[in-house]
Structures are given as structure tokens and as C-alpha cells.
Amino acid sequence: MFVLTNSLDENIAFFKSTFSGDETFLTREFQSQNGSRFCLLYMDGMADLSIIANTIIMPILQMEKHTVINDMNILSTQIVSSGELKKSKEPMTLIDSIIRGDAVLLTEGVAEALIISCKGFKTRSIQEPEIEKTIRGPREGFTESLITNLSLIRRKLETKDLKFKYKTLGTKSRTKACICYIEGRADEKILEEVNKRIDSIEIDGLFGVKFIHDLTDDSPKSIFEMTGETEKPDVLAAKLLEGRIGILLDGTPTAMTFPFIFIENFQTGEDYYTNYYSASIRRITRILGFIVATSFPAIYLALVTYHKEALPPPFILSILSARQGVPFLSVVELLLLFFSFEILTEAGSRTPGYIGQSLGIVGALILGTAAVEARIVSAPMIIVVGISSVSSLMLPSIRSQIVILRLFYIIGAAVFGIYGVFLSMTVTLIHLFSLKSYGVLYMSTINSLYSKDLKDTYFRGPKWFIKRKRSGGEK
Length: 475
Known about the structure:
Layout: H1 8-18, E1 25-31, E2 37-43, H2 49-61, H3 72-79, E3 85-88, H4 91-99, E4 103-107, E5 113-116, H5 146-156, E6 162-169, E7 175-182, H6 188-199, H7 209-216, E8 228-230, H8 233-241, E9 245-249, E10 255-258, H9 276-305, H10 313-322, H11 330-350, H12 353-373, H13 379-392, H14 399-416, H15 418-434, E11 436-437, E12 440-441, H16 451-454, E13 469-470, E14 473-474
Antiparallel strand pairs: 1-2, 2-4, 3-5, 4-5, 6-7, 7-9, 8-10, 9-10, 11-12, 13-14
Helix pairs in contact: 5-8, 9-13, 9-14, 11-12, 11-13, 14-15
């Protein structure tokens, strides 16, 4: 293992061999008025050249001739004017600093280097998130810069109890992560468990918080996710105040929160910037939309296939009339329509902006009308699929889970009728109540009959009624 020596040439040769073949690695050798030799190491495109010139090279070139450089203390305290710097003798620390955009200063006769912060790579400006758009409330969202994201949180929570703890993940990517929590609010046992799980991650590259979720999940085989995600600083700040723990990753605009409970899928940041009556109605609408999106097609299939006697005669006659000439069984017809809708949705999401929106609307209208006129599908089935599919769009965070549950319920309805639907729902509920997120029940507060637990679940209570809570309960 190489260690820094007093020979500048040997130190430069080591770093050049380490970054051999990388043409973005640059060395800048220069000499002060008293004859002392220096070398600056940095990455092209990662370091700000104006900072390098004005805070490092210029002060050294202008220092007095009688100044003797026999250690890095003189450079760090009297010469270099950067706002952030530190000394190091560890080659790996110096290599990581260069890769991250800092500059490393070497000098002849000193077996130590100076790490100078001069990051200058371009980052995306703060914008409103595409998925979590709001009419009222803050419009700013996270960016791909970790330090920018941390500053956004700090602006929301100006308290000394807000803590940030760095981690480095990925043996090759060396991605910087940050665990954030409020001391005194976050559960110490959960915090310890989070640190333990993150420290156990072994992977070459880590480029998004979803990687962390997949590698630390309590129930990796479940279709439901045990961690929450948000792109809004105000949402993360609110969750931290509730006692949750967040993690941000350099290079991704999404923050992950845990513990996570099921009811959070139906909560949005905008709920807390509107009247609580309006917010409660919208939240109930989302819950009903989830039920309709998952079970309505299966119930319809069960009734028209096995339980026609449960429907009014005029309705049955209307359905039979609409199905005349349709060559497929109802279950095949239903699955065919949902598959077509998923194709349109995926195609619309992969095409740019207004083209994707037009593709989804026009495609559904044209294909739906043509399919009915060609007697490939019936008009009532188009209505059922349309209502279910539009309802699922209200909950983008769990849309994939809705699609899976919908298919599960349809299969149950096709095999056992309405009893199969209820059996599938029962299996789903048993599974949901068995899940835990970092020791907290996934269905926490939902099964409670106490008003203190229901104040921010099915309804959004007024501000004076919602008090400070811990994760999944009240403090």
C-alpha cells in the first residue's frame, strides 16, 4: 500500500498511475517565488477553475519569498483562502476527494496533502416535481445534488436537533448517502436498525433510493413497499417531525422515508395546505378510488358470469344485448381491454409531454370505439375498464400494486365468482396486516377505533387537532 512521501515526483507518479487511462485527470505543477514546488490534482469538468485560480494558485504565487513551507499548516492557515479544506495522508481519501470534484494540493518536502473544496460541476436547478405537482403549497423539489437537497431541508427545519449522518455506499460507485432525522423524535431502536441495514449493503453501484429499498426491505417478496418516497422537501420535513427517518442519495432527486404505513399511500402534501373538509373529502375519494380500481372489474365479472340473478332484469338484458356478437368470454374480454390500456399508458409515459397525453386520450377513444363497433368487446366492459383504470391514476405511487391486485381479484372472480373476490380480498388483508416496516405495523392506526389514531388517516383533522406524533402512533 502506497503512502505519501516527501518526494513530490513520487507522489505525482502514484496518482498518475492510479488514474492512468483517464484523460479527465489533470495535474497542474507550479512554483512559488521562493522556489517551492507544488502540484494541484483535479478532475476536468468536476472542479471550478476560477476557484482553483483565485483561492489556490494565485495566493501561493504571491506569497512572500521568505515563507518556508515545511508542513501543510502554513498553507491551510495563511495562504490558501478556500472556505473548506482539510489535510490528509491517506491515499484513498485523496483519491475519493479528487473523484468527487475537490482539488488535492501536493508540495515538495511534505508527506501530506491538502484537500480543497472547489466543486464546479453543473447541476439541475430547483424545479417542481413532475409526479408530486401541487396547486397550493411550496413548488420546490429535490435535485440530483445532495448538498442542495440538505440545504432545502435545513431551510424547512431550522433546529439544532436536525441531524445529518453521511454514508458511502457501493464498492465501485462510492455514492454518498445521508441519513436525516430529528433527535428526540426518531425512535432510537429504529434508527439503530436503519444504520445496521444500510451498513450491511454490499453492491458495486448504487444510483437510486430504490436500490436501498430492495436491499433492506422487511418483506422483499411482498408487492407492497415498506418505505415511502418523496421529491418534495416540505413533505420530508413533515415526516421527520413525525419521528420518521429519511435518507437522501447523491445523484437522485428522491428521498426515502421509513417507517412507512399503508395509509400514507393516500396522503399528499397538498392535503395540509387546503381546508380540512376539502382535504378529507379528497382523501376519502382516493381510498374509494383504490377500492374501485382493484375490485370493481372483478365484482362486475363475477355478477355477469355467475350471479346474474343478483342484478335487475333490465340491466341484465342491456348487458346481454351489448354482448351479442362478441366472440370472447367476459374474463378474456376484460383481460384484453386491461392489457390494451396498459399498452397505451406505457406508450404515453415513454413519449414526450403533450404527445404522450394525446396518445393516451386519442388512443383510448379510437381503439375503444373501433373495438365496440367491430364487436370485439362490449360497451359495458369498456365502461368498467375505463372507470377502474382512471381510478388507478389517482394513486401513482401504488399503481403497480393496483394492477397486480386487480388481476388477482379478476382471476378469483373467474374461478369462484363473488366468493373468489371476497376470498382474494381476505388474503390481501391478512397479508397487509402481517407486514411490518422497520418494526412498525404496516396497517398501524388503520384498525384503531380511537379518535387520536384516526385524526390523520381516513380524514385530515384540523391543525389544532393534529398533534405531534411518532411513526405509526402518537407521542
